């Protein structure tokens, strides 16, 4: 197993565990006890990795990084929906 395969496996496992955030936020319909800012930072880092990993020829890491960026982006979209968009629509 290469370091790229190991790193890619960690990235994929990270995406799986981040899906727990998505599921919990869907159930709760509001964000409690967690701030969105760290996820923005790690999403930006993930976007950088989508450039960086192919540059290094690390395609397993790229696949795992893509999964993390997708899950984090979806979760941030959920936060926007439940915190800002949905309440604004309800007021109309």
Number of helices: 3
Helix amount, in percent?
A: over 70%
> Regions with pLDDT < 50 over 5+ consecutive residues?
none
Which structural class best describes the helix and strand composition?
A: mainly alpha
| Beta strand % | under 5%
User: Would you list the SSEs in sequence order as H and E?
Assistant: HHH
Mean pLDDT: 94
CATH architecture: Up-down Bundle
Shape: elongated
Class in CATH? Answer: Mainly Alpha
Please count the beta strands (DSSP E, at least 2 residues each).
0
Cα-to-Cα separation, first versus last residue: 56 Å
CATH fold-level topology? Monooxygenase
Describe the structure.
The protein has a single domain, classed as Monooxygenase, CATH 1.20.1280. Helices cover 86% and strands 0% of the residues. It has 3 helices and no strands. The chain is elongated. The termini are far apart.
Q: How is this structure best summarized?
A:
By secondary structure, this protein is mostly helical.
List keywords for this structure.
92 residues; elongated
Secondary structure layout plus pairing:
Elements: H1 3-28, H2 37-56, H3 59-91
Helix pairs in contact: 1-3, 2-3
């Amino acid at each position: 197993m290469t370091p790229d395969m190991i790193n890619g496996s960690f990235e994929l496992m990270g995406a799986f565990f981040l899906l727990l955030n998505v599921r919990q936020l869907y159930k709760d319909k509001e964000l409690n006890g967690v701030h969105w800012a760290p996820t923005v930072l790690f999403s930006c880092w993930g976007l950088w990795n989508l450039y960086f990993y192919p540059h290094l020829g690390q395609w397993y890491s790229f696949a795992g990084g893509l999964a993390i960026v997708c899950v984090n982006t979806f979760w941030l979209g959920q936060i926007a929906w439940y915190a800002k968009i949905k309440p604004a629509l309800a007021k109309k």
